[in-house]
Predict the structure.
Amino acid sequence: MTPDTSNEIIILANEASESLGRKIALHMGRPFTRVRKKIFSDGEVYHAFSEEIDGRHVIIIGATHNDESQQELIDLIDGCRYFRAGTVNIVVPYLGYSTMEQSKPDSYEIPKGITRTRQIFRAKPDFTAFIDLHSEAVLHAHRGDVQTLHIHTDSLIVKKIKELRLDNFVLVSPDYGRSKWVARLASQLDAPHTAADKDRYAMDKTMVSQVAGVVEGKVAIICDDMIRTGGSIIQTAQRCKEAGALDTIVFATHLVLSGNAREKFKEAGIGKIIGADTYPGVKNDYLLDLYSVAPLVADVLNRHLKTAG
């Protein structure tokens, strides 16, 4: 069955990603279908589809930033299988536990980036796409029975940087682990790039010791896949200023901003963070300047569905 009519495709989301799901549906030129949800007094959660699922190509947009959203996504996938969906196609805008994809030797710690992704795959979606993963290791956490895709938002970031109309800037990676990605962005912008020297001394604590002098006299654009507590980004901005940067701009796809991250950025004199709308609940405000991944995801899904059989 080739999905060539809107009736054959249904677009859903878990509650956390409903806003993004609506944007994606709009860019695909298709209606968004809201899942009916109730919570009973004992805490059990009721879900019901608003339309027939049998034989249709279902798209589910679902971030997994907390346990509730992870379970809801799995319930929706299982529900689609129960009602005999034609295909089940998942987009995970933000993957929870994505920095825990490895277990250190003799630590016996659970690599939840892998185990949680396996839970999604065990529900048997036909196609699962992730946006700007911290590590591509999670793409292979299945037995070969799920088609996976890593959606890179490079084109959106490059476009946003060009819109800033800066004449003299350098891209900065907050650590060497992201330097290849930052170098790729820099090549598209015909700009120099460098990486900060960062060491991690605790689970959520890092120390940035220095940044190369290439930032001197330039605007330093610090790029990362996510901002969680903001510690390493803020330290990188400080090292850039110490190395002679005229100004600093912060870019990150996933704006987690946990705890008192916002206050820390304010105290550090960083007044604007540019990022995507992948993390549930983020909105444009005095600190955040958002661009949407919806047009890019819509294009990916339209191309994928054209080849779905």
